[in-house]
Amino acid sequence: MDQTLTQVFYYLVYNLTRAVTAIMQRDSFLYWPFLLSAIVLAVIVSAVAATADGEQRGSRWKAAREYLSPAVWWHRSAKADYRLYIANALALPVIFSLLMFGDTHVVNLIERALGRAPSIRPGDLASADIFARLAFTVLVFIAYDFGRFVAHCALHEIPVLWEFHKVHHSAETLNPMTTFRAHPLDLLVMAWVPVVMTGLVTWIFNQIVAVPLSVYTYLGLHVVLFASNLIGTLRHSNVWLSYGPRWSKWFISPAQHQLHHSCEATHIGCNRGFELAVWDRMFGSLYVPKKRESFRMGLGDGTDGEWHNVRRMYVRPFVNAGKKIFGARGPRKVQPPPSQPSS
């Protein structure tokens, strides 16, 4: 009994410590270079916009002030983000240890389905290794990004899954912590599909190259994802950073992801991609803004405030999904007694 309590205490302290020190962890979206880059980019965006519009020097700090505004960071919606972040920090390690799998599992599953051991072709590794690894790095990134797009579409289009994704879209303001405002099942779906995609790429390369390959990394993170994370924190913010009409057709800008959170009719369901915009373009969900737009964020049905509670964010999706699966049961109708024949 004492050993169990000790293990529980260690688990709680360890995961809470990791949650509050995420700013120092290279594999975290809250790693300090990412947050610092967001502030720097906010200043640059302000300066460029002010210069273009001929505004006064003080206006050049407008985006930075908006980004750091207490009205954003201490909004009721933001406080719910923080509470769910802590709750998930305690719940997700257990959930993911039981239900998550990796690329290796996908590769092994394919091999078992084919009824054979991995096929390896000998080759000139000395000359091919650098090119194979570069190609592998790029294709893993593309597969990962496409997997996230597919998962994101499923969360929007499948009614049962949408009930869980509502937690994320109920946010009324955006800040970097909104990234973590997600139900555990939502996060599992967003993790499962990309792993399947990258597992397929890994298996294909295992058939071509004679040795297992690894992607190029920087500070332990996929090099392309590290670069994208430098501006990734601005996706969930009020800083309007657009890549312009031309580049926004190829890459999803922070401004486009902000529009994804809009509840305006013209924006519903748009910009479901994360890094590459080609998936949205292929499936007709790309929205490229010509200039900064004003819009409301949230679900748009007046229920956003009801979701700013951790217990409801965990439980309500299951209740709503259950109603969709089994049907909402109305009040039981009492049948009148059969009429007696007249004597």
Structural commentary:
The chain is an all-alpha fold and 343 residues long. The chain is built from 14 helices and 2 strands. The chain has one domain (69-323). Helix content is 58%, strand content 1%. Strands 1-2 form a two-stranded antiparallel sheet. It starts with a helix and ends in a 17-residue tail after the last helix. Residues 120-127 have low confidence and may be disordered.
Poorly predicted runs are 120-127
Report the structural category: mainly alpha
Main beta sheet = 2 strands, antiparallel
State Rg: 24 Å
> What sequence of helices (H) and strands (E) makes up the elements?
HHHHHHHHHEEHHHHH
Tally of helical segments: 14
Helix content: 55-70%
Number of domains: 1
Please state the overall shape, judged from the principal axes of the Cα atoms.
globular
The total beta strand count reads 2
Question: What distance separates the N and C termini?
Answer: 75 Å
Mean pLDDT: 86
- Give the oligomeric state of the chains in this entry, treating copies of one chain as homo and distinct chains as hetero: single chain
Strand content: under 5%
Spatial arrangement of strands, main beta sheet: 1-2
